[in-house]
Write a structure and sequence with these properties.
Length: 176
């Protein structure tokens, strides 16, 4: 509100400056140099007031920005405070000993389940595992027997034994 009032004050002073300048010209034409000088001094004083008003507006705008930023900071601090309180409550509910106990119980349950799975699946012994790995290695090491590649050069033209629809012409096959 104060900024708006200062802006209105600036407009009023600006209008007065223009009027007084025009009046000073008129007084000079009429030969009233002393009155014109007095009017120009008044105009100069009002210009200084206009500059001061501009500085005050600038200060007000800076203050408004500082207030807005401080409000944002306060919201951040409030959020941090709430988050810290929440963490403290969670720490009260869950102690390190409790977490270690739960982790131990979980590990025991996983081990127990593994033992049950071994019993139900009729788990293999270590010797069986070794035999399976050896067999897997033997299979992967076997070389597949491939047919031999002919040593004779391939014929240049393909003999046309039977007409086939949509069969590419030999010239097109050779070109591609």
């Amino acid at each position: 509100q104060q900024r708006d009032k200062l802006r209105q004050y600036q407009k009023r002073i600006s209008l007065n400056l223009e009027r007084e300048r025009a009046l000073a010209r008129e007084l000079l034409r009429d030969g009233k140099k002393e009155k014109a000088m007095l009017l120009l001094k008044k105009k100069r004083y009002q210009e200084q007031l206009l500059d001061k008003t501009e500085n005050q507006i600038s200060n007000l705008e800076r203050m408004v920005q500082d207030i807005e930023f401080t409000q944002i900071e306060m919201k951040v601090i409030e959020g941090l405070k709430i988050g810290n309180e929440c963490l403290n409550k969670m720490h009260q509910v869950m102690s390190i000993e409790e977490v270690e106990r739960i982790m131990g119980e979980t590990q025991d349950a996983v081990e127990y389940q593994r033992q049950i799975d071994e019993i139900l699946a009729g788990s293999l012994t270590e010797e069986d595992e070794d035999a399976i790995l050896e067999e897997l290695n033997a299979i992967t090491q076997e070389q597949m027997e491939l047919p031999e590649v002919p040593s004779e050069p391939l014929p240049e033209k393909i003999p046309e034994a039977s007409p086939v629809k949509n069969r590419p012409k030999p010239e097109l096959v050779a070109a591609s």
